Amino acid sequence: MSNDDLSAGSVGTVIRPGDSEWESARRFHSGIGEPAAVIRAASVDDVRGAVRYASAERLEIMIRGGGHSAWGGVPGGLTLDISALDTVDVEGTRVRVGGGALWGGVAHALAERGLGLSSGDTASVGVGGLTLGGGIGWMVRAWGLAADQLVGAQLVTARGDVVEVTETSHPELLWALRGGGGNFGVVTRFDFQAHRLDGVVHAVYGLEGDARPVLRVLRDVMADAPRDLTVTYMDVPAMDPNAPAGASITAVWAGTDEDAARRALAPLADAPGVTERDFGVLDYPDVLMEAPEFDPERPMPGFVGGNTLLGVLDDEAIDRLVAFREQHPASVVMLRSLGGAYADVAQDDTAFPARDATWFAMAGAFDIPGMLDDAGRAAANAAWDAIEAKGSGVYGNFTVSTDEAIAQRMYPPATMARLAAIKHTWDPGNVFCRNHNVKPVADGDAG
Q: Which residues cross the membrane (predicted)?
């Protein structure tokens, strides 16, 4: 890869091993990559040039939007950093967001105008990765996925062309972008339909003792709860002084009606072992967490476990989730309520799986050397398999594996076939393969 070849035309700032910015450029959210070069794009033309170069040279290319990608770099390939494309333009309730923007900045820009979008839980999460993977956020029951609010996009294709994607111009491509991941090009701008939002009610409850009866109450509360309410159950070990160990339930109500939120949550608040830690109105950006900065001397641990979308949170599923945490002290368990606007979207209307799911579940044991041996891994895998057997589909934003089997588990067969045909149209050479990869297959050729 010669300097002249890569520097010809507009590709952005090229950073290679030995350059003064190399060490900072190759770091990502949870590790240090080993690409042959990092390209920092400052414009759409830079993105076009970098993609054309990668396609011509048959180089793997990984897109970094500036958020929490944990895939790192591609040895011998290119990392294309588009974090500089982070503008937020608001016109009425239509919001145009650069492909490198972070949700914290977007939330603040919208809050100033009394608007909101359902985003991730963390301010430093990227808009691009979260949206393309679906985006289960605090307003998922009120407004659906982040991808459900996507009404258009600007995309650089594998050929380096720029296309404007809308319901009328490229409806199949827009369908694929709503949950199909980064398989179809580099999205340099996302167009969203925002919602009026003056603030949110934010509540946190602590749990003492056996979580099983409390989770049964929570399940029953959410079965009939107004869609303004979304809740998350977390049980974590001691990891961070700002995140107390133990079990807790956090609730967010889309709006400022504290009385309505209290009424909806009353059975949970009255459940034995539940104590109220916080209750009040906040600006939506203040709900988003701040993730700790990556320490290269302490790499992020792996996990043994997974995630799934549960159609029903029955007593057996609750017991298996709580037992996972009990059996593995260094582990985390999470539940996020679905339904409401999430369920309003027909299964075939987006690429995202399991629209009939009522809960998103995740459990993982930290795979830390000296803490989890082969027997412990086998036990955690078996415990997780029993949980996943209760669900349907995998949420790609909560797994960083590029194993082909993951993508196959993420989507129903008909959805995968449709994605593969769209992939063949827009990226027949599979240039964008550094993801939960959908391999291109000409329509009708599958099987």
A: none
Please give the pLDDT value at position 168: 97
β-partners of residue 164 are 154
Band (1; pLDDT cuts 50, 70, 90) = very low
Beta bridge partners of 110: none
| Contact present, 259 and 228 (Cβ < 8 Å) | no
pLDDT at 105 over 70: yes
Of 32, 74, 140, 171, the residue nearest 395 (C-alpha): 140
Q: Please write the tens of the pLDDT for every residue from 184-227.
A: 999 999 999 999 999 999 999 999 999 999 999 999 999 999 99
User: pTM for the complete prediction?
Assistant: 0.94
